[in-house]
Amino acid sequence: MMPRVMCVYFPHWNLQRTWQQRPELRGKPLALTRPIANKGSKVVACCGLAHRQGVRSGMLHAEAIAILPMLTCVAEDLDADRHILMQLAAWSQRYSPIVGLEDALAPTCLLIDTTGGAHCFGGEEAMVQKSREEFSENGWTVAIALADTIGMAWAHAACGVANATPQAATLPVAALRLSTATLTMLQQLGIERIEQLTALPRDQVAERFGTEVGLRLDQMTGRAAEVIAPFHAQPEAAASWVFDEPVDRHAIVLKVLDILLDRLQTILENRHCGTRLVECVLELDAAEAQRFECSLTRPARTASYLSSLLRTRLEQMRVEAPVRAMCVRAVVVERLADEQPNLFDHEANEAALAQLLDSLASRLGRDAVTMPHFVADPQPELACRFEPAVHRLASAGECAIEHRPLRLFPRPIGIQVVAMVPDGRLQRFHCAGVDHAVAHCRGPERIETGWWRAADIQRDYFMVETMDGTRWWIFQRREDGRWFLHGCFD
């Protein structure tokens, strides 16, 4: 079945979001501003009424007020923009269970996987019309398009091109989701349409503009795979920063990194969570974004601790161009248990060891710091293997689950795992018509029977605690990857 993607694009998203939250500003000249170091603030967006009176993006706040004294200025709020868009993503799951935001620092559209589901709405045209009407009824102005790829759907919606456009070549280069710097260079060269760009030798385009242009072309036409990152009800733990102008001073980048990690710590504290994997993204001027991450042996959220790890990684990098925006994100988030410390406890030693391993892995790379793992193999040279210490220590206390559930079901019950994190831990599962959100997940514990049994088994068991406090014993059958509920700790 041919995949189909529906793109819901919100023109002037930051202005729309502001009007939704402050309806008294409708019908008045409005501008959104961003602070500038030692210069007050500048306009980053303005409504049509203000634009017709001479206000432009990029001009200083004082200049805009001088041109239009009755102008209302509101500080931009990137976090609020993303938060409201996530709420709309949750609302849009009425059209498909797979809904995501576009992969951008400041997303302005929703991506919906409608493969095989349009018939539920009477066909694709009826589905587009219904969704457009429902968004409009809720006060949103949208442009909606359907296509076979994310890139093509985005191009049709964001550039105001009808779905019937036959070829990508006829679209403007702005439809390729390129960076502002790349679009500016293409404009200076007189390249306005994709057909002009594809007429150039591919190697010369890559040499001049990097891999960004070729990748976006391939994603639009389907030669390069691109999938929707599914939205989950819990918004991602992330904080972002957009600079007034691209900066190349290392000290400024480090200062902003600390500010963002303080914000991230607050987000995680409010959720009573920590992170095992934190990522930092540097959006560069006239270059591809650079990413770096740190894996942790234990969930953590302290800003100073995360800063020490990310600073080490950043010092080892060569930043290719000035930085125009930054984002820190907790990729793997886990709920932290509230534990009462004992008077004589070895937890302090374990925490110190975890911090040492995190520091070494951050400096040397996680695959360079290993720990021995003994396996039951009769061949001596195969009885021990070395695994990354970050992963080994993280699961050391979880793989040796000494107790078993008080209640073991006569036969394992099949369940559907709805969401997992990259390291294999469960986030949400569905059983007997009930959706369960996971608070803690410990494991896996590998259980295998020998060849001398009639039907040997190979299972990875997890002890899972859901948000309501219930603890379950769940396993994944290795032969086919199916999940089962086997017992309950009650």
Q: What would you call the structural class?
A: alpha+beta
Cα gyration radius (Å): 26 Å
| CATH topology heading of the largest domain | MutS, DNA mismatch repair protein, domain I
Distance between the termini: 45 Å
List low-confidence stretches.
395-402
Can you count the helices?
A: 14
The percentage of residues in β strands lies in 25-35%
Average the pLDDT over all residues and give the rounded result.
84
CATH class of the largest domain: Alpha Beta
**Range of helix content:** 25-40%
Explain what you see.
By secondary structure, this protein is an alpha+beta fold. The chain is 31% helix and 31% strand. It has helices at 13-21, 48-52, 61-67, 78-91, 124-137, 150-158, 180-188, 194-198, 202-209, 212-221, 250-270, 303-315, 347-364, 389-399, and strands at residues 5-9, 30-36, 40-46, 72-75, 99-101, 109-113, 143-147, 237-247, 273-284, 290-300, 323-335, 370-374, 384-388, 407-420, 426-431, 434-448, 458-466, 471-477, 483-489. Strand 9 and strand 10 form a beta hairpin. The radius of gyration is 26 Å and the shape is globular.
Lay out the secondary structure:
Elements lengths: L4 E5 L3 H9 L8 E7 L3 E7 L1 H5 L8 H7 L4 E4 L2 H14 L7 E3 L7 E5 L10 H14 L5 E5 L2 H9 L21 H9 L5 H5 L3 H8 L2 H10 L15 E11 L2 H21 L2 E12 L5 E11 L2 H13 L7 E13 L11 H18 L5 E5 L9 E5 H11 L7 E14 L5 E6 L2 E15 L9 E9 L4 E7 L5 E7 L1
List keywords for this structure.
490 residues; 4-stranded antiparallel sheet; MutS, DNA mismatch repair protein, domain I; Dna Ligase, domain 1; 6-stranded antiparallel beta barrel; 19 strands; alpha+beta; 14 helices
